[in-house]
Specification:
mainly alpha, Arc Repressor Mutant, subunit A, 3-stranded antiparallel β-sheet
Length: 127
């Protein structure tokens, strides 16, 4: 059967029912898609990626040491760390007045490692 397309839709409701049938009811819900997009938005800032990368290389770093390593002001770093903490990517431990940060869990390490591996692949392999 020939495909007939208009600007916004197909004339046929479903072209490949055998391919579509297993997908019915398995799509992400709106809230799950929103939460997932927010997580990827966490990685959408190069400074946040650099922070997570540094924390992936050390078990824990204080704010001052992390600012030094990344050549950031403590103020700029603290702003990004607050966002990362709110989104569940890092955790903070206080020792007196000093805040120590680490990755929240191994899932963060894996997502970051996967993203870094993906971006390091030659363009010919990603096609």
């Amino acid at each position: 059967m020939a495909q007939a397309w208009t600007n916004d839709s197909c004339d046929i409701a479903c072209l490949h029912p055998d391919a579509v049938r297993p997908l019915i009811g398995r799509q992400l819900s709106g809230p799950a898609a929103q939460a997932t997009a927010a997580w990827f938005d966490t990685l959408a800032d190069p400074t946040r990626v650099r922070i997570l990368d540094a924390l992936a290389l050390a078990p824990e770093l204080c704010v001052c040491d992390l600012a030094f390593v990344l050549d950031l002001s403590v103020s700029a770093l603290s702003h990004q760390l607050r966002l990362l903490r709110e989104r569940g990517a890092v955790r903070r431990r206080k020792a007196g007045r000093i805040g120590f940060y680490s990755l929240a869990d191994e899932r963060v390490r894996h997502v970051l490692a996967d993203a870094l591996t993906r971006t390091a692949e030659p363009a010919s392999q990603s096609a």
